[in-house]
Amino acid sequence: MNANPYLPVKVKVLEVGKQTENVATLKIESQGLNPAPGQFVEVSIPKVGECPVSISDFGSDFLELTVRKVGRVTGALNALRAGDSLFVRGPYGNGFPLENFDRRHVVMVLGGIGLAPVKGIINRYYLNGGVNRLDLLVGFRTPQEIIFRAELARWREKFNVVVAVEQDDPGWPGRVGLVSDLVKEISVEREAAAVVVGPPLMIKAAAEELSGRGVAKENIWVSLERRMSCGIGKCGHCRINDRYVCLDGPVFNYRQAEGLVD
Ligand SMILES: Cc1cc2nc3c(=O)[nH]c(=O)nc-3n(C[C@H](O)[C@H](O)[C@H](O)COP(=O)(O)OP(=O)(O)OC[C@H]3O[C@@H](n4cnc5c(N)ncnc54)[C@H](O)[C@@H]3O)c2cc1C
Ligand code: FES
Predict the structure, then answer these.
(1) What is the domain partition of the chain in residue ranges?
(2) What is the distance in A from the centroid of ligand 1 to the CA of 28?
(3) How far is the centre of ligand 2, averaged over its atoms, from the C-alpha of 68 (Å)?
(4) I need a surface site. Which of 53, 121, 125, 150 has the fewest CB within 10 A?
(5) How confident is the model over 15-31, as pLDDT tens digits?
(6) Under CATH, which number does the domain 98-257 receive?
């Protein structure tokens, strides 16, 4: 651990995978950073800036970050190539309480880049098992924005995977509509747990639908995004009421989060 918590470590980009025109997956050296699923790192590029990014997967010697280009830092991250360097500090936040999903029916409702924080967890369930049943309901605005296409196809071998897009497209053979509406179409077992990640409106709609279907709010886990600066509970940027999203979250159960989602 660095004595100065703001001091990042320099890491190399090992591989870059282009997901869509605006989303890239960077596999980077882990340099001893040892995350838990659902945690995030603060990523920086000198003379550009710093921003929080979820860890979309990790192994003993790598971290994977999946970044959507929306501005300066995420744009610069999308322009990186294998062999380039960047700086990271963390990992921060609490991550998902995986013990709550053991041997249960788990419903995941994920919107867009919201698939990133849980991709590693789904891969682990795909490879090693651990849940009784997994329904993966995933939504994107358009077919062009679908990320992790190869993984979604692979996960279909073992799980119920439904992908919906909001805007119809002549070449799209799949579902059109809001991902939160897909919850209405699945059976939900007693004692089911759920994971919901995406934009605030989607989180609210999906969590309310799940709660209406009998999933206890304590068993619905959401990951919140907030504008952050320090990432370590010092600056107050991410504070909502008495909660610091960077420290107390970003993962909250919906009982805790229902008043925190805009
Ligand atoms: C805990 C946490 C985890 C995150 N994980 C990921 C991740 O895995 N992948 C990823 O791509 N992003 C993730 N984000 C969002 C990411 O941090 C922001 O997109 C980033 O801070 C934008 O910085 P920028 O310098 O590129 O854009 P800026 O130049 O700061 O902003 C450019 C424009 O983008 C808008 N903008 C800023 N933040 C967001 C946002 N979150 N969503 C939509 N528009 C935004 C601004 O309002 C502005 O209009 C995460 C955020 C948090 C808090
Ligand atoms: S980002 Fe500074 S307190 Fe959370």
Answers:
(1) 9-92, 98-257
(2) 19
(3) 21
(4) 150
(5) 999 999 999 999 999 98
(6) 3.40.50.80
User: The pTM is what?
Assistant: 0.94
Note whether 9-92 and 98-257 share their fold: no
Instruction: Classify 217 as helix, strand or coil.
Output: helix
Hey, which of 48, 53, 235 would you mutate to test ligand 1's pocket, going by the most ligand atoms within 8 Å of its Cβ? 53
Q: Which CATH superfamily is domain 9-92 in?
A: Translation factors (2.40.30.10)
d(CA 213, CA 232): 36
Atom of ligand 2 nearest to the CA of 246: 4
Return the residue whose CA atom lies nearest to atom 7 of ligand 1: 53
* Sign, Cα dihedral of 17, 125, 162, 104: negative
212 confidence band (pLDDT: 50, 70, 90):
very high
Cα(212) to ligand 1 centroid in Å equals 31
